[in-house]
Each structure stands twice: as C-alpha cells, then as structure tokens.
C-alpha cells in the first residue's frame, strides 16, 4: 500500500491558513496606515511672522531653547504622530517646578496641538520661561524661551 495523503493535506491546510493570516494582518496594517494619514490634516499657520520656530517631536522640543525679544512670536509645529501641549502654566504641571514664568507674565497653555498642527504665542514680558508638554512631562519634554528687552 502507498503513503497516506493525510500529512500532505495537513501541510497544505497549514500553509493556506498561514497565508490567509498574513494577508489579513497586512490588510489591517494597510488600513491603519491609510486612516492615520487621512486623519492628520495639516493646519495652516495664520499667526504673525515668528522670530523662532520650535518643532515638536515624539518626546522633545527642537530646539529646546530659543532666545527672542519682547514683542516677538514663537511658533510651535507638531510634526509628531501624537498630540502635544505647550504649557506655561505651573498649575497644570505634575511638578510645578518644571514650569517657570518671569514676574508679571500670565500663565498660558496651548491645549491639544494635534499632529501637523501648530500653536503660537507673542511674548510681551521679558525674562526666562520654562515650559512642558503635559502628557510627556515625565519623559522630560520641556523647553525654554528667553525673552530679552
């Protein structure tokens, strides 16, 4: 008698199942990438001409320190795939010592800056400002703006 076709049949079934799972996973991955691309619309900047621009990366501001003059504007561009904040309000920080404002400056916060979004602020009080990204404060996402007279 000959060999049974059962082992060969089992191998074919296993290979077909593996291919089906691979194709299903590839399809899901492709849909996730496509939908992520659709949901991140670019927000045009409509503020005043910035004296400095800071880029928000995954867990950092770049540059981490900018120097400007009183009356100048800083623009933050979120190029990350996740939302960030630009928080100059010690009461919103997990550790209030991570945020500092010069005397006479009012605290402020950008709220959520979505992926491909931007935020800007015009600084009217000279001094040194230390700010954070609220959800990434524990990751050390912080920056400094030095405003000279």
How is this structure best summarized?
This protein is an alpha/beta fold and 149 residues long.
Describe this structure in words.
This protein is α/β, with parallel strands linked by helices and 149 residues long. The protein has 2 domains: 1-39; 52-148, Cupredoxins -  blue copper proteins (Immunoglobulin-like). Helices cover 23% and strands 24% of the residues. It is built from 1 helix and 7 strands; from the N terminus they run αβββββββ. The strands form 2 sheets. It has a 4-stranded mixed β-sheet, with no helix packed on it. Residues 31-41 have low confidence and may be disordered.
Largest sheet geometry: 4 strands, mixed
Q: Globular, elongated, flat, extended or rod-shaped: what is the shape?
A: elongated
- The Cα radius of gyration reads 25 Å
Beta fraction? 15-25%
Quickly count the domains: 2
CATH class of the largest domain: Mainly Beta
What is the CATH topology assignment of the largest domain? Immunoglobulin-like
Number of helices: 1
Span between termini: 98 Å
Instruction: Output the strand order for the largest sheet.
Output: 2-1-4-5
List the helices and strands and how they pair.
Blueprint: H1 6-39, E1 52-56, E2 61-62, E3 65-69, E4 73-78, E5 118-122, E6 127-132, E7 142-148
Parallel strand pairs: 1-4, 3-7
Antiparallel strand pairs: 1-2, 4-5, 6-7
């Amino acid at each position: 008698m000959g060999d049974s076709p059962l082992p060969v049949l089992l191998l074919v079934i296993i290979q077909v199942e593996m291919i089906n799972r691979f194709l299903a996973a590839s399809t899901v991955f492709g849909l996730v990438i496509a939908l992520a691309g659709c949901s991140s619309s670019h927000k045009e900047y409509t503020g005043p001409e910035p004296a400095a621009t800071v880029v928000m990366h995954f867990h950092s501001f770049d540059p981490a320190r900018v120097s400007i003059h009183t009356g100048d504007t800083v623009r933050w561009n979120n190029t990350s795939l996740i939302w960030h904040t630009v928080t100059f309000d010690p009461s919103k920080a997990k550790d209030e010592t991570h945020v500092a404002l010069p005397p006479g400056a009012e605290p402020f916060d950008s709220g959520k800056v979505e992926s491909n979004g931007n935020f800007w602020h015009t600084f009217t009080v000279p001094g040194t400002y230390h700010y954070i990204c609220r959800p990434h404060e524990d990751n050390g996402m912080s920056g400094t703006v030095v405003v000279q007279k």
